[in-house]
Amino acid sequence: MAHVLRVTNGTTTVNLTGGPITLAQYTPRSPETTVEEATAWALEDGGEVFAVAHRNVAEPIELTIVDSTTALVRAKVNALEMLLEEAAERQRRRIGSRVYVEFQPGASGDIYRSELLYGRLELGNELLGMDWRAPGARALLSWKRRFYWEGPQSELPLANGNGSGTGGRTIHNHDDGGAGHDNYVAIDGDDVEGVLPAPIRLEITNTYNQSTRTWDVYVGQNIWSSPGSLDHIIEAEDRDYVAGSASPQSDGSCSGGYKQPSTWPVDAQTLLLRFDLSTALLGACAGNYFRLLARFPTDPPETGCFIQPKITFPSGTPITVVAEGREIELNDHTLQSLGVMQIPPWLPGETSLYPVDLCIYGRQAGGGTLVWDYIQLTPLDGWRALIPRGYGAEYQIRIVDDGIAGSIWTDGWSGSQKTGHYLGRGRPIHLWPGRDQRLYFLAGNSNQNSEIARTHSIRAYYRPRRLTL
Could you tell me if 50 and 139 lie in one domain? Predict the structure, then answer.
């Protein structure tokens, strides 16, 4: 059974299983695991594991190098040594090409790769011997590589109300009952292979033909909170209570076609909005953490308006605060975070939970008025914020958040050159193999507003990751 084992930087490749080099021995090793475990006291049985991490892999490889002349043998040795040095230099400076070990066990199937971190080639003494019919040497190659193997890159089929498949899926900057008005893409778990979470290359193209540019882009990931059924948008007009007893107002520029004012006349912190979190919603949320992203159809005060979300019990009467976020000061952006909360704040993963309320409190000297559109419950199984430095993405410009290569760029400008003016906050999105999941998107524009009509096209690529082959 023929195997493929080679070292490459994408330009230079040294084959370890053919030509002058014969592979004598190689067994891919599984990564070791580091575990942090705590016990309440020394005589207690067992303990709680709170951290598990895979370590990079060290492996020995036995080779025989034979060629027609000693010079050719040395050339092959030097080519391999240069790749080992290039791999080490990449780790030191993060500049230059990555070097990979590529392996295919058997005569067919996909070729997987693992980034080579550094290595050493040690020759036997046969190279200077006189008894060989052809010049050659035995060699021991030892390297350290990443703890995982990556398979070939492929585009993921994405689905929402605008269709399914590859090639780009349209999302809107809100999610209501309108046809195709979805701000998410769904990923079928059957399309994500491997055994480890794998980073994606996420492509976000601005398809909104207006002079205002796409600015901040927020991406939330839902793996564990019922991705297929979670109602992640809370429309402000669906409130159970509003300060000032104001009625919803019709507004075609708002999600659901309505906006909701809340008015309070006092300095003290005041309940502005209250929403029922039903038994079904609490079960879907499953105790996950959520970032509350709020859209305001008109600019909030630039300074001096403070908001604090709380969860209260029992539902319908905010008597007992069972969880609260920190108080945050709003700015004049129409899309902003109200903080992070665990929902429900107790009994994670349990079902048949008694409803609780999400309450939004506010304070401002002399009282104030806010106009609300919606609050998005953004699951934090993955979270990514893409923030530009001084210039956003014009119409037809593509923002590429490449978690596979570890870089962010834009393209589509005149001449198709790339720019690197976007920064990423949070870990790049990683997909879990075999799990249905969704990615949610919201974006602001260059005028610090957030139009619900703004659209983007989404594409995603990944490489499956495995521990062993």
Answer: yes
Q: What 8-state DSSP symbol labels residue 451?
A: -
Summarize pLDDT for 147-203 with one digit per residue, the tens.
999 999 999 999 999 999 999 999 999 999 999 999 999 999 999 999 999 999 999
**Angle value at C-alpha 362, between 360 and 363, nearest 5 degrees:** 165
The 10s digit of each residue's pLDDT in 22-47 is 999 999 999 999 999 888 777 788 88
Cα distance between residue 9 and residue 283, in whole Å: 48
Segments forming the whole domain that contains residue 360: 231-379
pTM, two decimal places: 0.94
Please provide residue 189's backbone torsions phi and psi, each rounded to the nearest 5 degrees.
Answer: -60, -30
CA dist 95 to 13, 86, 87, 302, Å?
A: 19, 10, 10, 42
Gyration radius from the chain CA atoms: 28
Joined tokens for residue 394: 């014009």
Residues 288 and 193 in one domain: no
User: Do residues 55 and 31 lie in contact, with contact meaning Cβ atoms separated by under 8 Å?
Assistant: yes
- CATH at residue 84: 2.40.30.200
